[in-house]
Amino acid sequence: MVLATVFDTAAGSTVPLQTQGDALQAIQDSFLLSSSFWANIALAGVSILLFVYMGRNLSSSRAKLIWVAALLVPLVSISSYSSLVSGLTVGLLQMPAGHPLAGTGEVVSPWGRYLTWTFSTPAILAALGLLAGTDFTKLFTAITMDIGMCVTGLAAALTTSSLLIRWVFFGISTAFFLVVVYILLAEWSEDAARANTGEIFDTLRNLTVVLWFGYPVLWALGSEGLAVLGVGVTSWGYSGLDIVAKYAFAFLLLRWVANNESVVASNPSVFGGDD
To answer: How far apart are CA 141 and CA 205, in angstroms?
Structure first.
């Protein structure tokens, strides 16, 4: 939520910005929207407890680092979704001229999701990179491109001055995303084969790539883009993707690491030397 007293509408007039209470009321008035937040809070809480239990016997530093990265995913999510359900990171926006929802009043924008992704998706990539035994340069590149994807996605979601600029930011975000996909498919797959983690890496890589492609598609079709889908349906779409791309992903990863710790520990450190 932008902290200010007024904003300019498309007609040039100024109206008060909503308070957190206004955003909270809009969430409570929509069962689809609120339930999409609460479902993630509940599953993130269960995942935290489960992942702590799954990592209790890990001993090698590399396996523990993968565990921490995986655990960060639901930790970030439960914090972020709590902010969303409280209205703290939800805005009420008036869409720019030309947008399908322009002139229909204020549109609920759960922009806090982008904060979630800015912190949780680098953790996912860190876990995958460590599993693949990649080097620091490739890992750094993937994570920074991923952060760029999330930040420009946020810019696309919050831009209300111009429909064109909104879609330009979306295009930039997609370009960042395609770099990440290239690294996953072309670079880390070879690294994982050398690290003897190719089979589980390929499974998690395919899961990640397929699900992550769903996010820009949902943005384009949802209330932020062409508005083919309503706000509540869009929100549940994102929540459904998050549930599988985060919690199911992390569960599969940690289960394999717990059962194959010796393989993980035998790979060289990302930073050089031994873990």
So the answer is: 17
Mean pLDDT of the chain: 91
Q: Provide the pLDDT confidence category of residue 266 given band limits of 50, 70 and 90.
A: confident
Number of domains present in the structure of the chain:
1
Cα–Cα nearest to 88, from 5, 165, 21: 21
User: Is there a contact between 124 and 73 (Cβ–Cβ < 8 Å)?
Assistant: yes
- 61 occurs within a structural domain: yes
Range of 213's domain? 16-265
Handedness of CA 242, 203, 58, 125 (dihedral sign): negative
Sequence-distant (6+) residues with CB within 8 A of 109 are 90, 91, 92, 93, 157, 158, 224
Q: Which of 116, 112, 234 is nearest to 124 (CA)?
A: 116
Residue 50 and residue 250 in contact, taking contact as beta carbons nearer than 8 Å:
no
Which pTM does this prediction carry? 0.89
Q: What is the pLDDT of residues 199-228, one digit of tens each?
A: 999 999 999 999 999 999 999 999 999 999
Alpha-carbon distances of 51 from 68, 71, 240, 254, rounded to whole Å: 9, 6, 20, 7
CATH at 207? 1.20.1070.10
As a whole number, mean pLDDT of residues 26-51 equals 96
252 belongs to a structural domain = yes
Assess if residue 4 is contained within a domain. Answer: no
Asked whether residue 272 is assigned to any structural domain, the reply reads no
At 9, the pLDDT band (50, 70, 90 cuts) reads very low
